[in-house]
Automatic annotation (TrEMBL):
Family according to the record: Belongs to the TRAFAC class dynamin-like GTPase superfamily. GB1/RHD3 GTPase family.
Source species of the chain: Chironomus riparius
Gene3D superfamilies noted in UniProt: AHSP, P-loop containing nucleotide triphosphate hydrolases
Taxonomic path: Eukaryota, Metazoa, Ecdysozoa, Arthropoda, Hexapoda
GTP-binding in keyword set: yes
Alphabetized InterPro entries for the sequence: G_GB1_RHD3_dom (IPR030386), Guanylate-bd_C_sf (IPR036543), Guanylate-bd_N (IPR015894), P-loop_NTPase (IPR027417)
Residue intervals of the GB1/RHD3-type G domain: 40-304
Region ranges (Disordered): 442-467
Keyword annotations from UniProtKB, A to Z: GTP-binding, Hydrolase, Nucleotide-binding
GO molecular function terms attached to this record: GTP binding; GTPase activity
Name the UniProt record assigns to this protein: GB1/RHD3-type G domain-containing protein
Length: 492
């Protein structure tokens, strides 16, 4: 159940069809993650995964209610953030129905594949002033009579890969077979530990076990405190555990930076069973409402926000898009997904993102040079910019072996070489055009000077001709006067 929300809606970014093949919605992923407002922001991604009909979407809608009460978003940017200390009414009026992700009581599946809320939340971190984005994701329910074990593994694995905070939503207890799905994360962690460029950070950020309908509060109290004691007890290695379960327990702490657990009470018969329940608080058991409120706040308070990282490097939204599209493509077949393939794909996408950053640095540096004199000057600028880009690649945190670094380092050099040749030819053409322009202007100036000189000589010649004519006329006049005087003298 969920009517249209005024600011956003869930968008299916990965859909499993009847043949179990995955279809990737790259168009909407690009619209959401490459939005100009957020594409360069670091990102927190919260996802819920768990049992079919386990109330994941219901819980996400209360996450949405908290977020819209406290954080602005792309579609609601003018929202004034509520006080994180005193805003006690974020759960809404007692009879206010839930809006957001679709959900319902009953046995019919609502969420298929992976859905992303298309209105991204915005936050400025205290202290640093860094602007981040916050994304919410819902996943298809697991462990039903339709979903195969391979489907469960694929969906759980994807949820792990695309999240910085993953909430595993379980009913009443943590089953041993459910722990098995954590093998995906622990196997991935094993691969990352073999990197030649080791990091002290784990491959994944935060895993929260959320146990619904907890029935033993006398032994372990409701909430995070009791939940963490319970989780410690569950993850304790026992002699009678099968080897693979012992391995999961021993390895899980190496996979996540943070692991915790919250125990929630039964929500009340009308919440759990009524077909027409609309998600409002009025019908909740008061204890459930109290613990739900506390849990949501503990996950989404600013101090508890966890940014998505790969190889200890925080991702921007645009980088995150590159990674999840890479993962989704691996999940497009119905084959059993090998962790080795995912690990290799993660290396590839991480290296390609790093190469893009280095290329951008190279381009920025060569673009700053506005007046290049000749081909030698072009080569000097190129070599200096290339050194900076290659040093940037060399000094960055990277996954993989020396062979990976060599392979992608060569790829970077090759791309820089291609860009240089294009840029060089472009600059040489500009230099040639500028030279031709200078030569044409010089020729024009020379022609104008020659014309002026010729004009001066013409004027001078005309003036000389005029002087000569005057002189000739004066001589002729003097001659006539002399002749006249001579004639008059003869007459006398």
């Amino acid at each position: 159940m969920s009517d249209l929300h005024p600011y956003g809606m869930p968008i299916t970014i990965l859909k499993l069809d009847d043949s179990k093949e995955a279809m990737v919605n790259t168009t909407d992923l690009e619209k959401i993650l490459l939005n100009e407002e957020i594409k360069d922001r670091k990102v927190m991604v919260l996802s819920l995964i768990g049992a079919f009909r386990g109330g994941k979407s219901f819980l996400l809608d209360y996450f949405l209610r908290f977020m819209y009460a406290h954080y602005p978003s792309l579609n609601n940017p003018k929202q004034v953030a509520g006080s994180f200390d005193n805003n006690q009414n974020w759960m809404g009026d007692a009879n206010e129905p839930l809006l957001g992700f679709s959900w319902s009581s009953g046995t019919t599946r609502v969420t298929t594949g992976i859905n992303m809320w298309n209105d991204v939340f915005l936050h400025t971190m205290d202290g640093t002033g860094e602007k981040i984005a916050i994304i919410l994701i819902d996943t298809q329910g697991l462990f039903d009579n339709v979903t195969t074990q391979n489907d469960n593994s694929r969906i759980f694995g994807l949820g792990t890969l695309v999240s910085s905070v993953q909430i595993l939503n379980l009913n009443k207890f943590i089953q041993e077979d459910q722990l098995q799905y954590l093998r995906y994360a622990t196997e991935f962690a094993t691969f990352t530990a073999l990197d030649s460029k080791k990091t002290t950070e784990r491959p994944f950020q935060k895993l929260t076990f959320l146990i619904r309908d907890w029935g033993n509060p006398d032994e372990f109290e409701f909430g995070l405190t009791g939940g963490n004691y319970f989780l410690k007890d569950v993850l304790k290695v026992q002699k009678d555990h099968k080897p693979e379960l012992q391995e999961v327990r021993q390895s899980i702490s190496k996979s996540y930076d943070q692991i915790n657990c919250c125990l929630l009470p039964y929500p009340g018969i009308e919440v759990a069973s009524a077909k027409n329940y609309d998600g409002s608080c009025a019908k909740m058991d008061p204890l459930f409402k109290k613990e739900l409120k506390s849990f949501v706040e503990q996950i989404l308070l600013p101090k508890n926000l966890v940014l998505k990282k790969i190889n200890a490097v925080e991702l921007t939204c645009s980088e995150y898009k590159t990674h999840i599209e890479t993962y989704f493509k691996l999940f497009q077949s119905n084959d059993i997904l090998k962790v080795q393939n995912v690990y290799d794909a993660t290396i590839d996408s991480s290296m390609n993102i790093l190469i893009e950053k280095c290329i951008n640095e190279y381009n920025a540096r060569i673009s700053n040079e506005k007046e290049l004199m000749d081909e030698r000057h072009i080569s000097v600028i190129h070599e200096g910019s290339k050194i900076v880009a290659l040093d940037m690649f060399k000094n960055a945190k990277k996954m993989g072996t020396q062979e990976h670094e060599q392979k992608f380092g060569d790829k970077l050099k090759e791309q820089i070489g291609k860009i240089f040749e294009e840029w060089k030819q472009y600059q040489l053409n500009i230099i040639k055009k500028n030279q031709e322009k200078l030569e044409a202007e010089s020729a024009k100036r020379q022609a104008e000077a020659d014309a002026k000189k010729a004009e001066k000589e013409r004027i001078k010649a005309e003036e000389a001709e005029k002087v000569a004519k005057v002189q000739a006329e004066q001589a002729e006049k003097a001659k006539l006067e002399e002749t006249k005087k001579a004639e008059e003298a003869l007459k006398a």
